[in-house]
Design a protein that fits this description.
- Strands 1-3-2 form a three-stranded antiparallel beta sheet.
- The chain has one domain: Winged helix-like DNA-binding domain superfamily/Winged helix DNA-binding domain (Arc Repressor Mutant, subunit A).
- It contains three helices and three strands; from the N terminus they run αβααββ.
- α2 packs across α3.
- By secondary structure, it is α+β, with helices and mostly antiparallel strands.
């Protein structure tokens, strides 16, 4: 499967759950999960499994982000400057 739409979605939106990626790209969840496994094996993304509680309901998923991304520095003065 071509993982380009998934990588573009993660670059644009940052860290996302596999369900959010599937909804945002229009790709079925099973295909998204297969692509995420391939991308993680290649080192393109970082992923971890998470469990969230939503209104007393347990939701399990995979949280993904682009590998090697460093958030920008916060604006303003820094301590020790």
């Amino acid at each position: 499967m071509d993982a380009t739409p998934i990588l573009q979605f993660l670059r644009k939106n940052g860290q996302q759950l596999d369900r959010e990626i599937a909804a945002g790209t229009g790709i079925p969840l099973l295909k998204v999960r297969a692509s995420l496994a391939e991308l993680a094996a290649q080192g393109e993304i970082s992923r971890c499994s998470v469990t969230r509680l939503n209104g007393g309901k347990t939701i399990e998923g995979t949280l993904c982000r682009i590998s090697g991304t460093i958030p920008p520095k916060a604006p303003g003065r820094k301590p020790g400057s």
